# Entry
Amino acid sequence: MAEAAMLTTGTPPAPVDRPRVTLVGTTLVAAACGMFFAGLIGTYLRLRAETIAEAGVWFTDVTVKLPSPSIVMVTLGISVVSAQWGLWSITHRDRRNGYVALLLTLVLGAAAINSIVYNWTQMGFAVDAQVQGVLVYTITGAHLVMLLAAMGFVGLMSVRALGGQFTEGQSDGLAASVLFWDAMVTVYLVIWYAVYITR
Amino acid sequence: MTATATRPETEDDFGDHAAPTTGALPSVLGTGDHKLVGLLFLGTGLLFLIVSLVAGLVVAFERLDPAVADVVSNPTDVLQLLALERFGLLFLGVLPMFVGLGLYLTPLQVGAPTIAFPRAAAAGLWTWLIGAALQLASFGINGGPWGGEPDGVDLWASSTILLLGGLLLAIVCVVTTVVAHRAPGMSLRRVPLLSWSMLVAGSIWLASIPVLLGDLVLILVDHSNGRLAFGLNMELWGQVSWVLLAPTILMVTVPVLGVAADIIPVHAGARQRFHDGVLLAIAAFGVLTFGAWARPMLATDPLTEEVLYQGVAITLLLPLLLLIGAWGNTVFKGRLNLSGPMVASILGVALIGALALVGIAIAIPQTELAGTAAVDGVATAALLAAVVGVIAALGHWSPKLFGRFVADGAVKASSTLVFLGAVVVLAAEVVAGAYDHPALGAGPIESLRDTAEAMGAVVLGGYGIATLGVLLAALAMLTSTLGNGDDAEDDPWGGHTLEWATASPPPPENFVEVPMVTSAAPMLDARAPEEDAS
# Structure
């Protein structure tokens, strides 16, 4: 049909393969998520600065420990590598490694959820105990939702990859899921620094 | 358009979302047709717009002398109506109507067979609609930012989150379409200016609305758990009303510039002058309306004392002046054709210009207009400027939207009424502000009545005129939809862009052949040899 179009009109036809619609859409969603967390963390830092200016301390009667959030950070950091490994393998026809890497990414995501929830139990303050609780639980809870969404997205694309989709030339969906995963980890990096490191 | 090429096979990607062949409810509920979804956004948005304006009328009436006006006996209920009016105008009326226009028109303008993610666009519509219905219900059970019923307040916050989520989903579809669904040869510099403005506005909306979403989630969690961070119901309005203040509120006016930029050259019968400059000016105006940095959860000093705020307020005028210069030059090269869409476009742009000037006045500390009724005037006038833009768009693209013309006289009359209403409200609120009348919501309604009687009557008149204009536009749209207007040709205006290359209304696949684009005005190029010969 392409040749026919060339013959009749003298101009090239529209490309049959679709442009990177999923990737563009996911980029926009990831950017919107980034703004969502930027707003939350901005509010957190503002209230934190005000409280410290008045009382000299932010977390009162609460011990926010670093190990568990740091383990989450390391876990998610590794998952970025495994996700990229999965994408690279699938697009380079190394499907066996691709499946292993994508499965590993999902396992690391589950491990991160486990650590986040464990950290909540260890922090020892209720959401309605003080302002800090509202902020910390909202921010980390919203990130947990984003992590679950990223796992769902990568999981769906992994199933599609298992079904034979995605090649070197057409890896839009899988690349989009990995991009969203990276955005989710970047958000956690900011949370880790703003909430836990500078506590 | 110099040539066309065969439409690509898109069935694999966009398979079964073709327009319903029957009017049956399941077909509508399950539709993935971007044209039907866009029309549903437009129609329901118009309905909510009228509801919000009626709420605004009641609020304006309550500002009169209590001996004369006491429709709503409980002062808190007036504030509830104020929240309903402002949030309703923005998130139930104006923004969804522009999203609807974007969903309908951007695929046609960029030469795409459909919107990107058609099912997501439909999901966005229904999510927004359910959220909107729940929000109205929350006001009904004493919810809202000033609500007395805690569950009602929670319902208001969660329903607003829901409707904003739906809107964001639809906006992603529109922006993605412009970025990734363009016809061959259509670079971003060749994108039609309405689509360009939707790209700019959509990006700003995607950057701003999630920040509000974050505020609402925090408020919801806080309100459900002790109300430690953001206080009681009465204090919630201050945390979310930043979207209704300049510069953020001006983000709704960005597509008005795109509407005008597409309409003015076509109705003047001339090619857009300084096309790249117009692209840049719309983008600059859009970027300057990003105001999430100015929200109370972040701001430390009074906003108007910040250099950034003052700088943005003054700079906003520059792209507008550039646009007005470019359009003036275009009309000078062509002819001044005072058709309905042209008149509405000029009025919309004039109103935005007036807003920019008042914005500068508010930003100058010596005027002491900050925090006064003048900011209410800017909010209302910005929303009404967007309404004028929607009316202009309905008049211009009615052949594509309905297959028939909306009566030209109705477009002129309705846009003029809304414009006049907006000017009256803006002027009255600025005068009231000069007399230290505080912004609505800044204090109890009793204190407003003491200082607002004279200007309150003028504001009420302005709201009345604007509401009349919107009702007239709704009637004209309804008449056209029901088939009482004149049937339209495919390209009745001599359009410049791709949507005029297809039938009115467009077929389910939009284009029989995907056009090859070689300039920013492909249809004008295609006609150029004929026009030269004549």
Notes: The radius of gyration of chain B is 23 Å. The longest helix of chain B spans residues 445-481.
